Records
---
Amino acid sequence: MAEFETEDFSDGSDFEEFLGFEDVDEAEYFDDEYEPIDRELWLRHMFVNDDEEEEDDLGEFEGFQANWKTDNYHRNLRSAFNRTPGVKLDLPEDATPLQAFEKIFKEELWTHLVTETNRYRDQVEQTPTRAKTARWSPVTVPEMKTFIGICMGMGLLVLPVRRDYWRQSKNLFRTQFARNMSRDRFAAIWRYLHLQDNQAAVNRDDKMWKMRWFLDYLLAQFQALYEVDGNVSVDESMIKFKGRLSFRQYLPMKPTKWGIKVWVMAESATGYVTNFQVYAGREGSGEKGLAHRVVMDLARPYYGSHLSIYMDNFYTGVGLLEEMRTHGLYACGTVRANRKGLPKSELLRKKASLNKHEYRVAQMDDLTFCIWQDTKTVMVLSNHHDPTETGTVNRRKDGANRVPVVVPACLADYQKYMKGVDLLDQMVGYYGFQHRSKKWWRRVFFFLLSVSCHNAYIAARG
């Protein structure tokens, strides 16, 4: 929940300077031909300062709150998540992760992998500049399953290079892989493994065209297999890749600093991935910002469900949370001090000089804002928490054991539910298939294979 050190920025509004009316031709607006009107009342309706409260009854705007308030809070009512959590497909009560995995990697997918792998080998062999590969036979579905199973096994038992898994002369490297597939056969399938016909008429402007079918298919299976419990987190995961790639990212704060970024929405309690996007660079005009687009895209399947989404300060903003509320989505997250629309009171700014574990709360319409002094100043924004509710977080006191500290409910829930993607990264990192490849899409493929295994485990566990 640590915040980046940032400076306060103006929202760019010069509206107050326009209220002098030196250049306004009053005769143009107060002509004798028209019925006399109250000049002061007319000016108040035409030009309303953002820092002034309009007390008049404005009809359709009755009840609209234009400014943040720090007392006389109104109750912020919320609805419960309206979908049924848990497994959505028919699975036995004592189902194994393999049975759940078969609901994701169906025969349709295995057939697709086999077809494209064999097709790619034929296309390569027709190229005059390439030497032909001896003793090749088309891959079958059982062989492809064996190949993928060996790749999973390589994630469990990590050896320096792939050929070590077939060594029989040294007991240290002796495995049973050779009984299932020869080293040369594995190398041949590895070479021609493919997901998309290179000669097909596809949208080449889509940087993910080499695996677009696979991404769409896998996402559909994730959402069809399991329903989250109503609390999810949105964050980015990194797939390690240091080769040449136009959309390779550098995130210095991540354990994996160089690679391919994946936007992930995962269940907070289990890390089950319910939606994801591989980031391939800027899309469209980006009028509302990258973070705004990413969150709304990931949350689109849950419009109207009252899903609660937790995110860090890269995503959170007043405009985003207001739009999410209109789509029946709840959101909460830490927020940067220079975001537009936050309270302007000095008592609610980042440099408010609060005592240790002291907090202050403000409210505007459905938005609740809190500032809390921990080791650093923490600012949280929510569109569904009641400003009067509180919770507890555990903090060390004088270097001793952890003790509960009272904080606003939005901050307590943020700490509780902002862990789904981190949990996913932890679980996938234990057994990830990390063998090198110059083809970027293979790294994405094996990352999503690991995610599929994790999702299958969560679904089988119930």
---
Amino acid sequence: MAKTLNVPLIGARRPKPPDGAARVSRRPGGLGLLALVAAAFTLAQLILVHPGMGLGWDETVYVSQVSPHAPAAFFSAPRARGVSLLVAPIASWSSSTTLLRVYLALLSGLGLFVALRVWRGLFPVRVLALAGALFATLWVTLFYGPQAMPNYWVAIGALVCVGCFLRAQADGHDRAALWGIGLSAALMAWMRPPDAVWVTLPLLVVAVAVPRWRRAGPLLALVAGLLAGAAEWIIEAYVSYGGLGQRLSDGSRIQGGLGWNIAVGDQMRSLGGRVLCRPCTGAMPNPVVMAWWFVLPLIAVLGLVIAFRARRTAPTLLLLACATTAGIPYLFMIGYAAPRFLLPLYALVAIPVADALVHVVTVPGRRRRPVIVTLVAIGLAGHLAVQFAVLQATVRRTTDSHHGWAVTAAELHRLGVRPPCALAGHQSVPIAFYTGCSSWAVGGHNANATPESITRSARRMPVAVVTIPGSKPPGYARTWASHRVGDLNVYVSPGAGSPTP
């Protein structure tokens, strides 16, 4: 970095940044390159992840909270309302999945641009552009960018929050950085409050425990942002879940009981495109698919060494510290895996990795440079090929699954199960959304009904129970009309309308 940013107030001296704090370049530039990366990310989502791909299970829960298409699904304790509010501008008036996907793809591209822009001056633009490209070309990033899910937005919030925290430490009068800290922390807590705490834990520790970094502005902005984003979740805990402690306890129980549990192997199994690995059994993916996961921490450590030698350790160290705490609960404290859980980790570690790659292809002597550049180019090309292959297979498999729910919903309509109606049983949550019905469960994480209440409701509106072949229907549905719908059995209450030929 050449010169430090100097924005003194009239008649006031600029406070000296803490030892080891980031230096911010006077002329960062490069907005066009960052915008190009974000635009390419948006375009790749629209091309590779079909906008017409139906909504997934969790998506139907979030979207149903604001959609007039179907009654709101049961909202379990771990969930937060951020995604529902994010999709409300579209989902509140349109049932078009394609329109929703396009909206989210555009929004996720804009989010990536904003997150990279925050880091201008802290790292060279070419490093940021490569970091954005590395993060954006992971199959899990492309897959979840246009989805109504919270994890991508926690990742974007994490990048913005750490970057603004460093800028605020470098310049105590940077009000934009303080606002950035608060808003990004609020965004993370808005989406997933526990994740927001894990991501920002190193920032809170540094701001409190390191004397040179004790500044009221960044710390207050961070705490205020976390509280503002989590306020609705906390209030809802007391209104609907029996208190904050009870909601946290219920959330832990639903996720299998949070505690010491090494889930590294589970996450490795999910790298092959398993969007939810629960229970996480079966063989590991091909070693070629997992190779990048082992190389990633090695290159990140190299980035830290390079930053230490260049005497700009703080940005890289904070990025890696926040990436570590973001990954801890999903690598060592949970009994299952989903690749989207680690999106914040991948976003934060992308900058040190990109910094290391740029360094190794530019610093060595002329004789070795062509060999190193060739090896890095081959490695990146192979990595991209693997990511796109996994993405293609995952999109195809997911689209088929969602199409199956749509076919089942159409058949239920034919059988007379039309709104207002209700569904219970196997995969009732997504199938009910596609059908336009309420989803009921008498047990499990989504329990919101009893056999008696379902029986009473069946006297005044169509109710159906979905089971897999070989499973018996619940007692209250044993006398209902049985139908075979694809690979499922459906039991329709006598109150349903007449089947359509």
---
Amino acid sequence: MSNPAPDAKASRKSLATLFFCTAMPMGMWSVPLSNVFNAHGRGHLVPWVFATTATAAFISPLFVGAMADQKHSPVLLLRWLTAATSLTLLLTSAALAWAWSDAAVLICAQALALVALPAWSVTSSIVFSQLHDAKAQFGPLRAWATGGWMVGCWVVSFVLRADASLLAAVTAAGLWLVVMALTWKLPMIPPGEVVQHRTWKQILGLDALGLLVHRDHRVVFLTAALYCIPLAAFYPYTSRQLHDLGVENISAVMSLGQTTEVLVMLILANVMARFRLKWVFFSGIAICVVRFSLNALNSLPAVMLGTFMHGFAYTLYFITTQIYLEERIDPKWRVRAQALLAMLMSGVGNLLGYLGGGWWYDACTTVVDVPWPWWCPPSLTVKITDWPRFWWGEVGLTAVVCVFFAVAYRGRPRTQ
């Protein structure tokens, strides 16, 4: 089949399908990951596995930048990345199923993160390149990605019954191959302008550090990194708490957060038109304080309500941050500003959040010996987590971030 013309435009339907199918396997593996590792006796590796995505945020720009220097189309790049993601996900599943060493499992997980993380950013760049009016068209298309994540969670819980099974990972690996197949339906987009002699700072987006001289830019970037530290506790530990509360369809319950995410994306433009940007930012962090407080109550209705509020807590800050960069940053710096934001969030913030959260979880978990009758073997060892203590710690950390932003961010009058 011949390649389409370079100036061809993909239909809205094909772009929505690409977003939907890319997010679906991401949700199918990311949400049940914690319980899958627990079921295979590797629960102690969960913080480190999640941290692989953070370390990949430092390395992947080099990986993708090297390919971009060779002037490859982003469509070809996505095709290779999705194939590699499918392969490394199967390899990680095999490492768990065949009881490989902890080091081998983490190596496989790190390889998966290195190729899966840039796949999403490349998908977004392809969609952006096909839009005539990105501000008006991107939001509804991005909502299809959230829908794909939700459907992936529902399939895991209601169809596969695999909330703690590697069947979720194997199915997700197959869906990554579906995304690879979709790339043949996209126009062969030419690569963007490539600088022939880029420095390491340019590849990593670190030359955008000059943007931090501006006070509000500095506060927005720094708050994003700090906010990611407590927010990193959502997927690894909410799923464990739901398991302890006796929930079976954990992935489906976790998808409640995406329902509000879609809602907020659809109304965000109206919200930003009515309120100052500062209060949109602030409300996202403040809602997260309330959400974690509900988790601290450690009852199923409260945890489900807190999960439902995730979409508000995430979208009102992070999607608004992307819009902030689009509107307040000089166009020639926007790409590098987005790269710096991704590094601070996915790299610095998530790394501290996953590792720090793992330490705090261990501190809130005790090992209890459950005695058996005298005619049975020795006592059974059970781990019990003090969930109220764990989540109140996250509440305190989020509240500090909220106060910091409220005091430090100035903004500009609505008349501007």
---
Amino acid sequence: MPALDRQGTERLGILLVEDDPGDALLVEELLADSGLERELRWVRSVAEAEKALQALPGPPVPATVPAPAGEGGAAARGGPLHCVLLDLHLPDAVGLDGLRRILAAAPHAAVVVLTGLSEERTGLAAVAAGAQDYLVKGRVEGDLLGRAIRYAVQRRYAEQAAAALQAGRLQAAENARLERGLLPTPLVRDPRVRIRARYRPGRQQALLGGDFYDVVEAPDGMLHAVVGDVSGHGPDEAALGVCLRVAWRAFVLAGLSGPPLLRLLERVLVAERAGTEIFATLTQLSIAPDRREVRVLRAGHPGLLLREPPERVRFIELPGGPALGILPEHADWPESTLQVPPGGAVVIFTDGLIEGRVGSGRERLGEEGLVELANRHPDRPADDFLDAVIDSAQRLAADSGGLADDVAVLHLEWGHPR
């Protein structure tokens, strides 16, 4: 919004681009008569205007006009620039060419073009090309000029607000598409299987990060689950997370499992990642059709929680291999077996849950802290258990701003419900 002077009056920064000294003086006198609080600078050509505008920073920091050089009218004192008054007949630009150059050099300022008596059509064409208004020389009084400048600035603000709103809507739509890819509907037929999941983006992320999960029941009745984490944050990592999740589901439905599945997934990662420094960690579970045995694969990922009835939660860290993308085509991942007692449950999660700070110091929650939190709520139903654990971790990290990383948690149980 326009700056305020020391008396609190709205003050507009104006750049006049006019090669005729008489017309420039007339504009200055009209502005004085308008009562408009302003900072005016005069340049004689589009080239001079472009040079002056080069120092202008973009939004949201207000743009400032540099101090005048050479001859000119009233000089600006470096305040924010809000409006450009542009003559359409200049030594180095005629007609709309000058307007296009000014719009490119000052995309966030309002532009009002000045035309001759016989050039009203040109003024209309200038508005169609991006100017906020046009004025006919010789037909302008001080009040009219002041109102035109004010309205032009307000219209420019409205245009920018509308553009920002549209950009926000597009980003929200993109976020929704990413979310649908990262947070899928499990593909499970077995009514004994109960799945609960949570996903919470990190506090500083405008988009979902690269955490992902999925659960798929293969045609042979084998139940497969995965939780993964792409390094980094932002749209590229989120898109890669979606890609890996969809590829993982396709490989499972094609009958792949175990280390061969991870090798193919790593090939997808290497082909799709934006840089060689990008990697992904994951934990994959394969649960036998009789639901008595769980095979576990870990690729650089944290261990898991085992909920044992009636009231105990243990942290399980079975052998694992490197993260995907660290040693392409040379990595190996040992597969371990885990026995889940009747009525038990398995919880796999991304490291955002255990890397939050505890208090205002540098200490992090870690695996031991997570087990302590989980054992405060060992008998709760799955939904309550997940919410209680995540909320407790969030509260512990409140002094440092909350959980900084994305958190994905998957709770799997079968048999009798809790």
